[in-house]
Amino acid sequence: MIRFRHLAIAAALAISATSVAASELKVMTFNVRTITGNDGLNDWNHRRDLFADTIRQLHPDVIGTQELHKQQGDDTVAGLPEYTWFGRDRFGKHTDEHMGIFYRKDTLKLVESGDFWLSDTPDKVGSITWGNLFPRMVNWALFERISDHKRFYLLDTHYPYRDSDEDARSRSAHEMNEWIAKLPKDVPVIVTGDFNTGPDSESHKTLTATLKDAWETAPKREGPAETFHNFTGNATKRIDWILYRGVSPTFVQTVTTSKDGRYPSDHFPVFADFDL
């Protein structure tokens, strides 16, 4: 009788552990740092393996990247074959910077995907307004988790970087809010991005009127708040965010992985674990 009771308890604990593991959704936002920069010892060839190792360390289910060139995406999945990635670049091709979305093929199914531009003509590929130097865009996807068929939307973006672009960033935030408002209310939404502005900005205020910031709301967090460090390891600005609605963050981390004084990017990636 005692033996059977122990077996029943063990089975219940195993089911409970499986349930907890199944509820986890691991998300990362990662500005890759463009391959075209004149970065010397910090160029992509010197960072490629460390970039993949940083992802491998936390093994997120889905990653929103910024500044990604096709070679960088292809190099990464060559080293991490459980992942694939997709997305057009900001000109609608595959020759410039992408907001590439990576996901694990063993945990997620891509149901639908698309993109739109942060401009007065969001459906026009490569469109530029609001004083932007380059096209700015959003890459998005509807994912279904293979284990339990739960779905969520992921949007990935990269806002303009100049101090004078604050109005364009604010307009971008309003446009994204309007797009998200049209999504089904019962399907969670997660937003990843390099917003090139801080949490005291109008852009953050606009987006967090309907979304929450994982760094501000997770019950447990690790690492510095700031994310941009320019390959120094000493970050000065919190410009990389993971925002959400319809899920619950349990943990968030600014990832400061380095090797021999070298970093995988000039930004620290941000990682969040959610209950889906």
TrEMBL record:
Residues 28-267 form the Endonuclease/exonuclease/phosphatase domain. GO terms for molecular function: endonuclease activity. Residues 1-21 form the signal peptide. Gene3D superfamilies: Endonuclease/exonuclease/phosphatase. Keywords: Endonuclease, Hydrolase, Nuclease, Signal. It comes from the Bacteria. The keyword Signal applies. Pfam families: Exo_endo_phos. This is Endonuclease/exonuclease/phosphatase family protein.
